[in-house]
Amino acid sequence: MGMTDTVRKNPLCLLWTIPYLLCGVFSHLLNDPVSHALFVWLPPGVAVGAYLLSPRRDWLLLMAGFFCAQLLLTLVSRGQPATAIVFAVTGALSSMLAAWTVQRLSPRAEGPGFVAALLAGAVAGAASSALLGGGWLWLTQDAHAVVRLRTWVTAYLAGVLILAPALTGWAQFRPRRSGGPRMRDLLIGAVAYALMIVSTFMTFDGDMIQNLPYVVTFELTYLPLVFAVLIALVWGTPGGTLAMVTLMLMALYQSAQGEGPFVEANDPWHVLLATQVYLVVTALLLLLVNTLRGARAQALENAEQWRGRFDLALAGSRQLMYRFNPHDGKLELAGDLQDAFGLPANAITSLESLAAHTHPEDRSRLTMHWAARRAGAQDRSPLLFRVAHAAGGWRLVSDRGSPLSDFDGSVAVVAGMWRLGEIEHEPTDGGQ
User: Fold this and answer.
1) Check whether domain 321-424 has CATH 2.30.110.10, yes or no
2) At residue 320, what are phi and psi to the nearest 5 degrees?
3) E-assigned strands of 250-347?
4) What is the pLDDT of residues 67-109, one digit of tens each?
5) What is the pLDDT of residues 353-397, one digit of tens each?
6) Dist CA 357 CA 318 (whole Å)
7) Is residue 215 within 8 Å of residue 230, measured between CB atoms?
8) Which CATH architecture has domain 11-169?
């Protein structure tokens, strides 16, 4: 039994350690080299995303991989074996706890509930990470323990809430069989992406905003967010992920240079924490946009599938469905008119166009029948009439339907079915 479980584990999940290491190196480049305080720490976002996207049977393998990756990062940055081991255990366990909390609260990893579950998981992971790592620093009487513990929770929360939604959102993307986005959407997304890059550079560039009032520089931070949301709307989940990663890299890099609207002269490291809060808000907003957009797309796909099954049922039973609105005189037909009468779908849209295609001997009877229906008559006996077929002959139709009343007793709509019979050929077909 144990051998079977071991064989089923996927060693390719260890590839998650590569982006974990890359994010760790990038984060260390932005952090304080003196106190080693974690103002930016993105690896937990990769780890939580990896746990969420991997089956439970691979979690132990993932935990071992993240343990080794974190051990390497800490040894290179600090060179203290004991602290490196504690941090490695802390990083692997806290991220797994965060992912477990998310899955426990939102097993399907979709919908608005997933956003709340992700927040709860990030808090659980940050608390456990601060408890274990901060406790170790306190026990070892680290000189900068208080400073590191103060920023630990914020950096962990930001790392999870920025990257985990991007990874899970990208994983939920499924290519459509329709061939991809339209050229118009591609162009709008490309323009929005270019404008987001330009507005982000302008917002976080110190030379461009140094002469502007603080209120103006703060208001400029909304511009990249608006363009990021627009990208997510027209390009979908992949576009939202691309926008989030681009915005994150640009904002963090320029903020680390001491630039941007969140700079404080008395606290040079405050800018990184404030920038990450800004990025967290953006990430959660994009996650909500992708969630609502995905729910709408799924609803449209379900409706299209249902319509396809309904059309097949109509075709298989040789029937058409109709709906007549007595207020505007519009007649809607559902089914294959091409197969039934050899006509395009928009050939019969009113009682007048129906009468024009009806056999001359049946028109008066059809007109009287529909006049009674419009008056509210509940006679449900089928009406037999013939409709011209484009290839010649007359298709026999059995109409069974009835009017449906509105709240005031008036006729709201007339609905029913046409059962299709055989095509009759008469010597007088051409006399219509």
Assistant:
1) no
2) -125, 150
3) 319-325, 330-334
4) 999 999 988 877 778 888 988 999 899 999 999 999 999 877 6
5) 999 999 999 999 999 989 888 888 877 788 899 999 888 889 999
6) 19
7) no
8) Orthogonal Bundle (1.10)
